[in-house]
Amino acid sequence: MATQDFYQILEVSKDASERDIKKAYKRMAMKYHPDRTKGDKELELKFKEIKQAYEVLSDPQKRQMYDQYGHEAFEQARQGGGHGAGGFGGGGADFADIFGDVFGDIFGGGGRRGQARAQRGADLRYNLEMSLEDAVRGKNVELQIPTLVECEDCDGSGAKKGSKPETCSHCHGAGQIQMRQGFFAVQQACPHCRGKGKIIKDPCRSCHGQGRVEKTKTLNVKIPAGVDTGDRIRLANEGEAGEHGAPAGDLYVQVHVREHPIFARDGNNLFCEVPVSFTKAALGGDIEVPTLEGKVKLKVPKETQTGKHFRLRGKGVKSVRTGATGDLICKVVIETPVNLSAKQREMLEELENSMGEGDEAAKFRPKEKGFFDGVKQFFDDLRS
């Protein structure tokens, strides 16, 4: 028995509240616990004094006796080997009660618990593949979801109709039992009820006591306009049914948009390549460009080169989040004519000859001259 004043040991005043005493004990016990002091006997004795002080001051009845009679109030019980209300062997402070919130996750649950809670149903994921057109416009889809649903015969209790699950006599409905290891109390699932807290002696024949049965349910889901690959739609309580009446999980619809033969998507913008004949590119003119809403006319200026981009405002995708509409960006690809007749080849040769050679041809083909001048300069630099 410590002879130093218990209030001094915990470094609290005599009018300290129960909460202040608990906080002080928690702070000091963490500091002087044997696992931290590494076998220091003096500090180990200090820890024992701290624990004894808390066992008294945390119990209103013991604290009242200590305030009135001091240490002598417990001497008789200690000398007689007593471990009742006045001693330190029973009741007292449970290290797991004090540090349950700190060590709860490590030891499978902290402090004292009430009735065991039935486990919430699992969340489900459904991978939905869509065309670009459906993703842009939105669509109502019908999904077939294989899942676990609440048993109708027993209303999810798992017990046969007319009977009820009984409270486990071993864990008294807590679903866990406590095993002590020194100052620590380790909790584990009750082996008799398997952590449920209840035992079903007369199980339902339809679900065999599980409270859930397998079923494929049909859901009509509205996919909003503008969704894209990677977007996820949450349907609350449409996942698996919970155990024994617990809440159901959620269903997450994962969107995947298939590749389109014409358009590529980047955010709210659409991209496409538009083939243009070399004569149309040289002379200019109107061409038809596809959009998701139909064809539109695009004016191509004369002397247009491959790779030039044209932006059609508001012809992209409407954002599912902001409502802003993106653009359609068209990339021009000059198409070289094929399957020419003899007369057509002759006309092209005549055109080629009319442009001349060297510096004379540069004004008609400036990129060509610039490219070859750059190549010549490159090799000249290598030789020097």
From TrEMBL:
Positions annotated to bind Zn(2+) 2: C168, C171, C190, C193
Subunit record text: Homodimer.
Major localization listed first in the record, in broad terms: cytoplasm
Any one GO molecular-function label of the UniProt entry: zinc ion binding
Keyword Plastid: no
Record keywords: Chaperone, Cytoplasm, DNA replication, Metal-binding, Repeat, Stress response, Zinc, Zinc-finger
Protein's UniProt name: Chaperone protein DnaJ
GO cellular component: cytoplasm
Organism: Idiomarina aquatica
